[in-house]
Amino acid sequence: MRKVIAGLFYSVDGVAEAPNLFQFDSFDDELGALLGKTMAVVDTVLMGRVGFEQWAGYWPTASQDNDFADFINAVPKYVASRNSSAPLGWSNAQLIEGDLLEFVREIKNQPGGEIAAMGGMSLVRQLLLAGLMDEMTLIVHPVISGRGRHLFGADDPTTRLELKGLQQTSKGNAILTYAKRAG
Questions:
Q1: pTM of the prediction?
Q2: Which domains does the chain have, with CATH numbers?
Q3: Which of 64, 69, 151, 165 has the fewest C-beta atoms lying within 10 Å of its C-beta?
């Protein structure tokens, strides 16, 4: 069975939205290696509609981060949307028809590499709480953002997690990998 994974850049105060506004100089070689390792095993990407629209406006013509641009432009992308049926207009992108959770259950049982949830906090949250996210990595930068959306909210149920991995990078980032605890 294929694994569903996610990696989110995070501030110490729990903000996951728009990490480009708080990452500053904390991206280091260890994070680059982690992203390279992830790109090497992922052959399918799940995206939320808002993240997809933002990324589709940038990555097809990006002039920096060429390794990631090459990856994200070429990989098959499946987009979850509750209110869009418009053509997606980005290479290898397809709208998920029907129920998201059922779609993810189906592709987890198909042959292939890992499946990464990218560009969608609500997508990551929904997959984790439904028990379909095998690993979620939080890359906590040594900064307080002060504003922005959080991954989890006050209405989310108490959910027990298991720490699967912990690493500190040279610039003080904490890489925390979790899985939903069984039972």
A1: 0.93
A2: 4-180 (3.40.430.10)
A3: 64
